[in-house]
Design brief:
The protein is built from 25 helices and 29 strands. It has 741 residues and is α/β, with parallel strands linked by helices. The structure holds ligand MGD (2 copies), iron/sulfur cluster and molybdenum atom.
């Protein structure tokens, strides 16, 4: 074959920054990956992980055929055999135990895959189970709850308008490494630099002097888990010093007086000892936020994965509202996604709002949230006998055995299931427990549109990536696999006509949405199938859409496809009140559920500081638990180290590079110590997602340097009671030198 060089484009699926990449191909080989300079959104930026796309595609451990476990060993199977196995084993479990006997668990990559995101609801509907779990509850569900209560929909998350901002307070986020989260912002470094060059300032609040702190103007250590006190102190100062100035938001906001009353007890001088930040600093920050025209507060996972996660998430937006920075240029604004955003659908300005707690989990009684039960309840729902016990699990793009607290219990529980299916691209710590593994495609083999992250983007845009390479014959796309399982769950069998089922489901949805016009819409979408058809529908009916011809210049899928580097839809613009979906049609500044939760804060005000606590850490060449098998990212020095402040090390007799035993009660791990004055004294940092030394996984590269599992230390019973989110940060530990093995 003669060599044929071509250039292809692909949105990077590895993190929320969603960078546009350009790939040089020689026939079907990727020879080079670089940032797409023409990309309307990321402008050529990329990070080292992007190169991993090639390694992922070529990884011999990446599954390319279904596996079925026979007598405890996985054997390769055809797709027909795999579906037949599911058909044989899943329906009897539903027949015996009812729909709740089957659980689903979704992992993080789901949100980077349009097929999984758009088609999981179909599978969920077919199953009809209440036992749905996902990584959301070890991540962002507190933010979803707080914005849901304040603004009326779960994903109405305001994001910093960094390109027009002059002051930013960043709490519990490290965008220099994570590349942004619930804030799609490729090249944070470049944008931060530009911000400072125009006189802007960045202040970071974090128990570790992070990579982001290194490019900021100021950094303050905070006691892990004590952000709620710090934020209450700032809100108190805003009222106390008459700094509240809501501008045009005043007429769209309710609850200011109730809020003022609720924070009265949290003067900065009263909370400073608890949070570790001086009252004068809180007051100064309050003044700067109030007196700077284009400013905002941004918080992320450090503020979510703690016992007051929902309150922290709420108070961050409260400060933005009180200082008049919400929905203002250079402040914290609402993106307007081209498709699928709940806050661009239905009547503008008002709605049904959100509800949580419609039911409770069987064992712990954790309230339902966003139709889910906390991930940390999954093990107990499987291993606790009784009516309603989970007997089968469908795991999709998740590795909770490593990524959730107490994976050891979960691993044991998974082995007690009658049946488990994993949709995954690896045989790893979680999928090894499955009876059937259905592999997904390499990202290079599938089309992409960012359903999720366009909703959090600092600038509005629409981009589509066609498949870069052809997929192997017979390999289904993952949305097809999900429809197949849906058909089986409905009793239609593995051989059902899933295309017809797909048509029926869409028709049903359209009838609900547009009534008799459904037929016309179906006809207009006739040229497409499956996920592309849903995308076309989303785009054309979306806020920039052509409305099926009524706005002839509007967006269609064809228009986006014709722009390989995307279509820019402009900077964020004001969206209040239009974006609100609260029943009151106002921003709810003081939701009762949150005011009530302040009782827990009050009770905690005098809590003494534990001598030593542990927090997590993200690293540039890693992404949660699943990219450690890619040689280009795995190389370099050992990274799964525990950062310990030299003063703590001296006190505890720990040495740089030495081994240490870390205990949380009887839970124990052995780590390699790295001395670091980046740490707040009394705080240790260890990355999560490691521990690839479990038997039965097939991760050749990762197993060579497995690292240690932080989550093995953590307690699955610790949750923020409002959101059910796991507490992953600020866990008291003890540490002592360990004789090297
Ligand atoms: N201690 C501690 N624990 C944490 C965190 C923390 O900060 N500290 N962070 C939490 C957060 S924010 C998150 S989001 C979770 C993440 O935890 P999970 O959602 O469990 O994600 P990963 O661990 O990355 O596992 C992803 C899985 O998806 C598979 N996969 C990758 N691509 C595809 C694909 O295209 N199709 C399919 N079907 N499968 C695919 C991978 O093989 C892997 O099994 O971890 C959480 N755990
Ligand atoms: N390279 C890389 N990028 C990623 C990921 C990855 O694993 N690797 N994961 C992706 C995912 S799933 C997510 S959710 C995002 C997360 O994106 P970020 O939220 O930016 O993630 P982190 O880097 O974990 O930053 C959290 C920060 O909170 C700090 N922290 C810990 N506890 C506390 C506390 O109690 N209070 C305060 N104020 N700070 C605290 C930590 O020291 C850390 O600096 O990143 C995404 N991007
Ligand atoms: S920043 Fe994220 S999206 Fe951009 S190249 Fe790196 S991993 Fe990919
Ligand atoms: Mo996450």
């Amino acid at each position: 074959m003669t060599s044929q060089a071509t250039v292809a484009h692909r949105i990077c699926p590895f993190c929320e920054a969603a960078c546009g990449l350009e790939l040089d191909l020689d026939n079907d080989k990727v020879v080079r990956i670089r940032g797409d300079e023409q990309d309307v959104f990321s402008g050529g930026f990329l990070c080292p992980k992007a190169i991993g796309l090639k390694d992922l595609h070529d990884d011999p451990d990446r599954l390319r055929t279904p596996l079925i476990k026979r007598n405890g060993r996985f054997v390769e199977a055809t797709w027909d055999e795999a579906y037949a196995e599911i058909e044989q084993r899943l329906p009897p479990i539903i027949a015996a135990g009812g729909p709740n006997a089957v659980a689903t668990v979704l992992g993080n990559p789901t949100s980077h895959k349009m097929g999984l995101t758009l088609y999981f609801p179909r599978l969920a509907r077919a199953l009809g189970t209440r036992n749905m779990f996902s990584a959301s509850s070890v991540d962002q569900v507190p933010k979803m709850l707080s914005v849901g209560l304040m603004f009326g929909s779960w994903l109405s998350v305001p994001v910093p308008d960094i390109e027009r901002s002059r002051f930013m307070l960043i709490i519990g986020a490290n965008p220099m490494v994570s590349n942004g989260s619930l804030w799609t912002v490729p090249d944070f470094r470049g944008k931060a630099k530009a911000m400072r060059a125009r006189g802007g300032k960045i202040v970071v609040v974090d128990p570790r002097r992070t990579e982001t702190a290194a490019v900021a103007d100021q950094h303050h250590f905070i006691r892990p888990g004590a952000d709620v006190f710090f934020l209450l102190g700032i809100v108190h100062a805003l009222f106390d010093e008459s700094l509240v100035s809501m501008g045009r938001l005043a007429e769209h906001t309710t609850g200011v007086d109730a809020l003022a009353a609720a924070v009265r007890a949290y003067a900065p001088e009263l909370v400073q000892a608890r949070c570790g930040i001086e009252a004068a600093t809180m007051r100064e920050l309050a003044r700067t936020l109030a007196n700077t025209r284009n400013a905002c507060v941004y918080g992320r996972i450090g503020t979510c994965t703690q016992q007051f996660g929902t309150l922290c998430s709420w108070l961050i937006d409260v400060i933005n509202v009180l200082t008049g920075h919400l929905d203002e240029e250079g402040g914290s604004m609402f993106p307007k996604a081209a498709a699928f955003a709940a806050n661009t659908r239905g009547a503008p300005g008002t709605g049904r709002g959100i509800v949580s707690g419609r039911y409770r989990s069987r064992v712990s009684g954790a309230p339902e949230i966003v139709g889910e039960i906390p991930l940390t309840c999954l093990a107990e729902e499987i291993d606790t006998p009784g009516e309603g016990q989970i007997r089968a699990l469908i795991a999709i793009a998740g590795n909770p055995v490593l990524s959730a607290p107490n994976g050891a219990r979960l691993a044991k529980a998974l082995d007690q299931l009658d049946f488990m299916v994993s949709l995954d691209i690896y045989l790893n710590e979680t999928s090894r427990h499955a009876d059937v593994i259905l592999p997904g495609l390499s990202p290079l083999e599938e089309a992409h549109y960012d359903v999720t992250f366009t909703q959090f983007s600092h600038r509005n845009h629409a981009r589509y990536s066609p498949p870069v390479l052809a997929r192997a014959p017979g390999m289904p796309e993952e949305w097809e696999s999900m429809l197949r399982i849906a058909a089986i769950a409905k009793g239609l069998g593995a051989k059902a006509d899933i295309s017809a089922l797909d048509d029926e489901a869409l028709e049903e949805d359209l009838k609900k949405a547009v009534g008799p016009a459904a037929d016309q819409v179906m006809a207009a979408l006739d040229h497409l199938k499956g996920v592309e058809r849903l995308l076309e529908l989303g785009l054309r009916t979306g806020p920039y859409g052509d409305q099926f011809g009524r706005k002839p210049d509007g967006l269609t899928l064809a228009r986006i496809k014709a722009a390989p580097s995307g279509i820019d839809l402009g900077p964020m613009a004001q969206r209040i009140p239009e974006a609100l979906r609260t029943p009151s049609g106002k921003i709810e500044l003081a939701p009762q559920m949150l005011l009530d939760d302040l009782a827990r804060v009050e009770a905690d005000l005098a809590a003494p500081a534990p001598e030593l606590v542990i927090i997590g850490r993200r690293q540039l060449r890693s992404n949660n638990s699943w990219m450690h098998n890619l040689p280009v990212l795995a190389k370099g020095g050992y990274r799964c180290t525990a950062l310990v402040h030299p003063a703590d090390a001296a006190r505890l007799g720990l040495t740089d590079g030495g081994a240490a035993q870390v205990n949380n009660g009887t839970r124990q791990i052995v780590v390699q110590v790295e001395l670091s004055d980046e740490m707040m004294p009394g705080v240790v940092s260890l990355p999560h997602g490691w521990g690839h030394n479990l038997p039965g996984a097939q991760l050749g590269v990762a197993a060579q340097r497995p690292g240690v599992n932080l989550n093995a230390l953590l307690d699955e019973n610790l949750r923020d009671p409002l959101s059910g989110n796991a507490v992953l940060s600020g866990i008291p530990i003890t540490m002592k030198a360990h004789a090297a093995a």
